[in-house]
Structures are given as C-alpha cells and as structure tokens.
Amino acid sequence: MVDPENRTNGESEPRDRRPVLHICMTCRPAGAAPDAPNDPAAGSEFHDAIQRRLSARRLESSIRVNPINCMANCEQGCSAALSSPGKWSYIAGFLRAELADDVIDYALVYGASRTGVVMPSKRAPSLRDAVVARVPAHPDDLLEQRDGA
Ligand code: FES
Question: Quick one: 121 exposed, middle or buried, by C-beta within 10 A (0-12, 13-18, 19+)?
C-alpha cells in the first residue's frame, strides 16, 4: 500500500513512508542467563506474534516488518526499533509476544506522527518504559521534510 503522503526522493519511485518495525530475531528475554536454553529465540517468537497479529488485524500493508539479527541491545531483549524517513527512530527493549498488539498500536501512532515522537502517555501502559534510546533522522531526510519535498 502506498501512503498518500508519500513524496518523491528525486527518483522516479515515491518513497515508502510506512513505519518500519525492525525486530531482532536472536534476542533472548531480558535477564536470561547467557547459557539459558533459547530455542526458539524469544526474538523470533516475538516476530511471529507480530506477524500473526498484523494478519489478524489486516494491517500487513500498514507496517513494514524487518527481521534482523542483533541491535546491540541484548541485555534488554527482546528488542525492536521503529524508523521512518525524516523521523526519529526508537529502540525498545523488554518486549515479548504478549505485547504484539501494543507494539502494533504504537507503530501505527508513530506512523501517523510527523516527527515520530510519541509521548509515553500515547503508548500502552505495557510500553511506557520500553523505549531505551532514540536516534535522529538522517539530516538529508530532515532537509527534505523541512523543504516540503
Ligand atoms: S541479540 Fe537482540 S539485540 Fe542483541
């Protein structure tokens, strides 16, 4: 699905501005002992729960899911991040499969925001303390946004 607010990036194709939910597939649960059994990985279970809930809610085309291996947030796993061109990116930890709907709701609010800022009061109570860091948008994306391109 193409967002009606898509803008071009100087190339022929419009940029996909849907929120991207990057999910660490190799995360262990927060606090797990390094030698604890981890099959299947908690991150993989979280990813599968997100996919199931996106499908059940018919939201597969609203959020892009990007499975990856390790975001260097291992001590606070399961970890995921939200990003979108021109917006702050957010890294969250302490996630688990039971929070899939809350994470999806957060991603939808994030996707609707102009800058990516979602105040804690706009997130489900289960996610109030989940955000562990944020990263600014690439400067070129901010210029593009400011210029209304
Ligand atoms: S294994 Fe998931 S952040 Fe490192």
Answer: exposed
Report how far ligand 1's centroid is from the alpha carbon of 80 (Å): 9
Ligand 1, atom nearest to 73 Cα? 3
3-class DSSP state of 48: helix
Instruction: Choose one of 74, 76, 94 to mutate for the ligand 1 pocket test, by most ligand atoms within 8 angstroms of C-beta.
Output: 74
The CATH class given to the 20-146 domain equals alpha beta
pLDDT of residue 112: 96
The pTM of this model reads 0.85
**Strand duo 80-83 + 64-68: pairing:** unpaired
Average pLDDT, stretch 130-139? 94
Is the pLDDT at 111 greater than 60? The verdict is yes
Mean pLDDT score, 81-85 = 96
Residue 126 has φ and ψ, to the nearest 5°, of -65, -15
From the alpha carbon of 78, which atom of ligand 1 is closest? 2
Ligand 1 mutation target, pool 25, 26, 44, 94, most atoms within 8 A of CB: 26
For the stretch 23-79, pLDDT in tens is 999 998 877 776 777 667 899 999 999 999 999 999 999 999 999 999 999 989 899
